[in-house]
Amino acid sequence: MSEQKKNRIRPLRVSPTGKDPLEVWVVGINHETAPIELREKLAFPSGELGDLATRIIASTGAEEVVVLSTCNRVEILATGSQKLELAGPLTEFLSGEAAMRTADLNDHRYVYRGRDALKHLFRVASSLDSMVVGESQILGQLKEQFRIAADHDNVGSLLRRCFEHSFRVAKRVRNETEVATKAVSISSAAVDLARRIFDDLSGKTVMLIGAGQMAELAAKHFMGAGVRNLIVTNRSFDRGVELARRFDGTSVPFDRYQEYLPMVDIVLGSVAADGAILEREAIAPVLRGRRGRPMFLIDLGVPRNFDPTINQVDGCYLYDIDSLASVAQDHRAERAKEAAKAEVIIHEESDSFWEMLHGNDITPTIVALRGKLEGIRTSELDRAKTVLRRMDPEDREAMEAMTQAIVNKILHIPFSVLKDLAREQDAGGASEAKDFVHHLFELEMLYEDKSKGG
Predict the structure, then answer these.
(1) Interatomic CA distance for residues 180 and 133, integer angstroms
(2) 102, 81, 68, 78: which is closest to 17 by C-alpha?
(3) Based on the structure, what is the number of domains in the chain?
(4) Around 38, how many Cα atoms within 13 Å sit in the side-chain half-sphere?
(5) Which amino acids are annotated catalytic?
(6) Claim to verify: residue 36 and residue 159 sit in the same structural domain
(7) In terms of residue numbers, what domain contains 244?
(8) Distance linking the first and last C-alpha atoms of the chain
(9) Residue 242: CATH number of its domain
(10) What's the sign of the alpha-carbon dihedral 309, 311, 312, 316?
């Protein structure tokens, strides 16, 4: 829109509702911007995410908040007044949780707002921003952590619409591209790493520490790679037994799993823990029991399950989740063409949703304004019906067409201005102009939150 047109309307704006338009923000870190040593300081258990979002709202000025915390990312998705800069307060909150200087976190964080924040959310939901492109776990995690925030009343109509649309975008990406045709995940990448270490896994014994979704996927891929000896240990013994039975494995008590380590070639850890559950001191007797055979440990935990210094012990080879980067890069290369198709979809969806998000707000105004002027037109024609009856039918049709054309010409500029403002990155102009038009023409319109059911 031209500056001349902007200057014509901006002096007229008022805000009768007294409420500023909202802006969408994303502040976070992920596997590409921060090492695991930092990510594990900000790894929040699912059970804490609802209360965490409540505290963020109370301390930052944000109006809606969803916290996303996975092994590869920690993000705050928030909305707040367009007059409020949220990147600083949200970063300060995260740095406080990590007990680190805000300046240090600034070196690793990313910030998105407005249309860019929507695009980022859609990329995350579609697993285009994942370490392993095409993995399916992130969408489930996104849905679950959104539900937690909603259950704690931390989500309003704007974030709800954004998240629900991100789920639809992810479905479209999976239906229209082959980015996820081959079952991939962090767990499958871990098994691929094990296959690089051992040419043949058929004679190896694997222990899974943890029995959650990540461990279950790992078990599936290990068995598919030829592993026949599987040991499962889990804090919930029954859950460990259930997982082991599904794959014809053995379950051992969590408090005694270290007794079985000497017979294990590959150990995969994926439990939620505040700190390491396997310390370096426990490894020496294990290696003596293995009589010189090396042991490989793959740590998928965030925070990490295994003491990082274990890697310094001779005969022990430890890989954490960031070690999967090379394997993930191979997956990314395989999916480059399909990922490019998916990026086109993301671009289309973020643009169309942005325009819909703000364009929908002006559509009732456009309809109401046209209805107001059309009512005036028909009313005046009705008042002149005595004169019109004396006119020939062709002349009456010409009069009808002429008055319709007058209304259309009057509406052309205000409609153009409203639509242009709705497409701008700063959508506040559309809201202010809409309010002004309603008061100027005394339009009647029912305001309602369409995101809520009846």
Answers:
(1) 8
(2) 81
(3) 3
(4) 22
(5) 71
(6) yes
(7) 186-330
(8) 38
(9) 3.40.50.720
(10) positive
Do 154 and 203 fall within a single domain? no
Distance CA 285, CA 290 (A): 9
- Looking at residue 423, its pLDDT comes to 66
Q: What are phi and psi of 167, to 5 degrees?
A: -65, -40
Rounded Cα–Cα distance for residues 267 and 287 (Å): 13
CB 233 within 8 A of CB 215: no
265 and 323 in a single domain? The answer is yes
Per-10-residue mean pLDDT of the chain, 454 residues long, equals 47 44 95 95 95 98 97 96 95 96 96 96 96 92 97 95 96 92 82 90 96 95 95 97 97 97 97 94 94 94 96 95 85 85 95 75 81 92 88 89 94 86 60 77 55 35
pLDDT value at residue 16: 38
The whole-angstrom distance between residue 415's C-alpha and the CA centroid of its chain comes to 34
- Asked if 231 and 252 touch (Cβ cutoff 8 Å), the reply is yes
CA distance 56 to 65: 7
The H or E element spanning position 23 is: strand 22-30
SS3 209: strand
In the chain, the amino acid numbered 3 is E
- For strands 73-81 and 64-69, give the pairing: antiparallel
Residue 113, classed as helix, strand or coil, is strand
Closest by Cα among 7, 24, 64 to 358: 24
**Strand positions, DSSP E, 271-350:** 295-299, 316-320
Question: What DSSP character marks residue 70?
Answer: -
In terms of Cα–Cα distance, which of 58, 62, 68, 66 is closest to 22?
A: 62
Distances, alpha carbon 407 to alpha carbons 5, 12, 369, in Å = 20, 22, 10
For residue 358, tell me if it sits in a domain. Answer: no
Q: Name the 3-class secondary structure at 370.
A: helix
C-alpha 286/C-alpha 427 separation (Å) is 62
Check residue 306 and report its DSSP letter: B
pLDDT of the residue at 3 = 53
